[in-house]
Structure formats: structure tokens, C-alpha cells
Amino acid sequence: VKAAVFASGTGSNFDVIMNTEDLACEITLLVCDNPEAQVIQKANKYGVAVFVFNPKDYPSKKAYEQQIVKKLQEAGISWIFLAGYMRIAGPVLLGAFENKIVNIHPSLLPAFPGKDAIGQAFKAGVKITGVTVHFIDEGIDTGPIIAQVPVTVLTGDTETELKERIQKTEHQLYPKVINQLIQAK
Ligand code: GRF
């Protein structure tokens, strides 16, 4: 089973997925919308092919998603795992990979969707936040929830400390859920 990771940032989740020894799929493609992203160096290190695109080079979202779908199909990809990909999927991508696109988000959705979910939760003063893995749809961090793990906000926590615990939780959860999804198919 071949899978792609879509990421535009640091790539800590990508790193953890790549280092999971019993991963039920092979990550053979990284899709990235930012040529400066650190995750590209990580992909190069692992010998994973990279498709970097600049949305501004395309006339429309439809056009760049058609190009992405072409790359995915050429590579024989059957699953897509988003890890810090900051774009909303459109009908072209969603239609080509129905129920095969999964995202990880650093809050207990439907609370705190969108950008800076950890900062949003911290500022709201909640005592419990967490991590969600979900199928994506046309919304922002909406779509059927697959798994959630709570993370407690401790008294005296700084936002940085909370972020570290949430990321650690993400790194434990994502490879497990990826394996469960692929093995259930
Ligand atoms: C993660 O917190 C993920 O939940 C969110 O984007 C972040 C990506 O982090 N969607 P990294 O690039 O994997 O370190």
C-alpha cells in the first residue's frame, strides 16, 4: 500500500511516520505547497519523492489539484495523510480520494478548528484539549472523527509546554491510526 503525506511545515509528524518500523504502508510521496518548508529536507533525507507546487503558478485551485491528483495517480498512491498542510481540499482532490484523506489536528474537534488551535485553547483557558485524527471534507477541520486523545492543561503550563505535550501525543497517535485504517481495509 502506497501513501502520500501532505505537509507544508516543520514535518515532525512526517518524521515520526517515516521512523515507524511497522508502518502498514509505504510513504512514497510528499506533497508540499511551500518550497521553503523544512519538511522537504526531511523527505530528501529519507529518499521520498517530493512534489512541491506554488498555488500562485496555477490559474485556480481546480488546476493545481488536478496536477496533484495526476502525481498521486502516477505514483500509485491510495491513502493521503495530511500533517500540517494548510490548505482546504477542493472537490477535485476529495472526489479522487474519497474516504482516503486523513488529517491530524491539535485540538479536540469540533473545538478550536483552524489555525493556532493550541494557542486558541490556551487563551480560552480550557483544562482539557487534545488531538483529533479525522477524515477531511470541504470544511476547515470538519469531517468524520476517527480518533481523539485528550491532553490536560496543567496549572502553570506555558503555551510552549502545552504544545510540546500535544505534539508528543500527535506523534504517538498518528502512526497507530494510520495502521488501524489501512489494516481495516
Ligand atoms: C501539527 O500540529 C498538526 O496537528 C497540524 O499541523 C502541525 C504540523 O506539525 N495540522 P509538524 O509539521 O508535523 O511538526
TrEMBL record:
<feature type="binding site">
    <location>
        <begin position="11"/>
        <end position="13"/>
    </location>
    <ligand>
        <name>N(1)-(5-phospho-beta-D-ribosyl)glycinamide</name>
    </ligand>
</feature>
<dbReference type="GO" id="GO:0006189">
    <property type="term" value="P:'de novo' IMP biosynthetic process"/>
</dbReference>
<feature type="binding site">
    <location>
        <position position="61"/>
    </location>
    <ligand>
        <name>(6R)-10-formyltetrahydrofolate</name>
    </ligand>
</feature>
<dbReference type="GO" id="GO:0005829">
    <property type="term" value="C:cytosol"/>
</dbReference>
<comment type="similarity">
    <text>Belongs to the GART family.</text>
</comment>
<dbReference type="InterPro" id="IPR004607">
    <property type="entry name" value="GART"/>
</dbReference>
<feature type="binding site">
    <location>
        <position position="103"/>
    </location>
    <ligand>
        <name>(6R)-10-formyltetrahydrofolate</name>
    </ligand>
</feature>
<keyword id="KW-0808">Transferase</keyword>
<keyword id="KW-0658">Purine biosynthesis</keyword>
<comment type="pathway">
    <text>Purine metabolism; IMP biosynthesis via de novo pathway; N(2)-formyl-N(1)-(5-phospho-D-ribosyl)glycinamide from N(1)-(5-phospho-D-ribosyl)glycinamide (10-formyl THF route): step 1/1.</text>
</comment>
<dbReference type="GO" id="GO:0004644">
    <property type="term" value="F:phosphoribosylglycinamide formyltransferase activity"/>
</dbReference>
<comment type="function">
    <text>Catalyzes the transfer of a formyl group from 10-formyltetrahydrofolate to 5-phospho-ribosyl-glycinamide (GAR), producing 5-phospho-ribosyl-N-formylglycinamide (FGAR) and tetrahydrofolate.</text>
</comment>
<dbReference type="Pfam" id="PF00551">
    <property type="entry name" value="Formyl_trans_N"/>
</dbReference>
<feature type="site" description="Raises pKa of active site His">
    <location>
        <position position="141"/>
    </location>
</feature>
<protein>
    <recommendedName>
        <fullName>Phosphoribosylglycinamide formyltransferase</fullName>
        <ecNumber>2.1.2.2</ecNumber>
    </recommendedName>
</protein>
<feature type="active site" description="Proton donor">
    <location>
        <position position="105"/>
    </location>
</feature>
<dbReference type="InterPro" id="IPR036477">
    <property type="entry name" value="Formyl_transf_N_sf"/>
</dbReference>
<dbReference type="InterPro" id="IPR002376">
    <property type="entry name" value="Formyl_transf_N"/>
</dbReference>
<feature type="domain" description="Formyl transferase N-terminal">
    <location>
        <begin position="2"/>
        <end position="178"/>
    </location>
</feature>
